[in-house]
Amino acid sequence: MTPDSTRQLHSVRQGKDFQVSGPLVWLAGDIHHTDFAPAVAWLRSRTVVHELPSIDAPPDDPARQFPAAIVLCQSRPGQISQAAVESLHARAPLARLVALVGCWCEGEVRSGHPWHGVKRIYWHQALARLPEELGITERPPGASHRPRTENGIDAILRALPAGTRMPPQAGLVAITTSSRDTYAALADICWAQGLRSVWQMPGWPSQSRGADAVIVDGWPAAPLETPKRTILLVNFLRPTNLQRAAQEKVAAVLGMPLFVPDLTQAIESLVGRPAGRGSIGAAA
Fold first, then answer.
1. Dihedrals φ, ψ of 136, to 5°?
2. Across 63-67, 70-74, 158-162, least confident range
3. How many CB atoms lie within 10 A of CB 242?
4. Residue 41 and residue 271: Cα distance in Å, rounded?
5. pTM, to two decimals
6. Quick one: which of 34, 112, 132, 118 has its CA closest to 72?
7. How large is the C-alpha radius of gyration of the chain?
8. What is the C-alpha separation between 121 and 83, in angstroms, rounded?
9. Please, which pLDDT band fits residue 41 given cuts at 50, 70 and 90?
């Protein structure tokens, strides 16, 4: 058996037989923390989950020795050491290493000791990022085993063929920000998707009414004109932000620092994908 194999697990729950299909995933760490509840529920519905009782506990079933991915849940910094990660990965060296990290781990990259060679996904990114990382997506599959050191820039370069230029489509994205540099960076992302963009300074006359999507840098003081076509970029995203966004029917809320494939996926959901071209960050 290989990590790419589709596995099926038959079990009995409440007296009824059920079947789960998908890649085998080892799940370890602070699995039951509320930050990870939606992600863990998704994993249990789309993959064959083998929950490890502890980081140091090897699987007791030989049929579970070949996972496609190892998903580590950490709600606070320092719960899992780098040595424990390496020891676990040594038991399944072909498995994709994915970390789900909670609210309290946001500053770990700047001032802590984040793991090396582990794909890091924040709690609010999980439902958007896990399908791509585990290969459970409608997009064409990419390489089965990507390097542990692959980062967001590598994913972009892998998805964009060298020298490829596409004329802008009819799609228009309005970008609301007070920073020229932020606008330029977001406009480049839109251009890479074959979309035009227009800069909307806060307080300027609105240019977003005819836009297919609106990107807003920070939560505005005034009510959003088109919440169902708005993508909000928020620093230090918290569950209360998502609750407010749901109440106001905002299309998407993304945490900063921004992971580019997350933004392109959100734009695609509103505008669509350019014909004949994959998404930035999708498998090429």
1. -100, 80
2. 158-162
3. 15
4. 29
5. 0.56
6. 118
7. 20
8. 20
9. very high
Ramachandran region, residue 230 (left: φ > 0; alpha: ψ -120 to 50; beta: rest): beta
Q: Which two tokens stand for residue 269?
A: 């959901």
Q: Which tens digits make up the pLDDT trace of 77-130?
A: 889 999 999 988 888 888 999 999 998 887 777 766 788 888 889 888 888 888
Quote the tokens at residue 18: 């059920």
Q: In the block, which residue shows the tokens 């297919």?
A: 212
Q: Tell the residue number behind the tokens 């088109």, with chain if given.
A: 226
Dist CA 102 CA 41 (whole Å) = 16
Angle value at C-alpha 126, between 11 and 192, nearest 5 degrees: 130
Q: What is the pLDDT of residue 112?
A: 67
Domain architecture of the chain: domains with CATH: 7-150 (3.40.50.2300), 172-271 (3.40.50.2300)
| Contact call for residues 259 and 152 (beta carbons, < 8 A) | yes
Residue 221 to residue 82: CA distance in whole angstroms:
42
DSSP string, the chain: --TTS-EEEEEEETTEEEEEEE-EEEEEESTT-GGGHHHHHHHHHHSEEEE-SSTTPPPSSGGGS--SEEEEEESSTTSS-HHHHHHHHHHSTTSEEEEEE-GGGTTHHHHS-PPSS-EEEEGGGHHHHHHHHHT-SSSPP--SS--TT--HHHHHHHHS-TT------S-EEEEE-S-HHHHHHHHHHHHHTT-EEEEE-TTSPP--TT-SEEEEES--SSPPS-GGGEEEEEET--HHHHHHHHHTT-SEEEEESP-HHHHHHHHHHHH-PPTT-PPTTS--
Distance set, CA 244 to CA 217, 231, 232, 239 (Å)? 16, 13, 12, 9
Q: What angle do CA 226, 228, 231 make, to 5 degrees?
A: 85
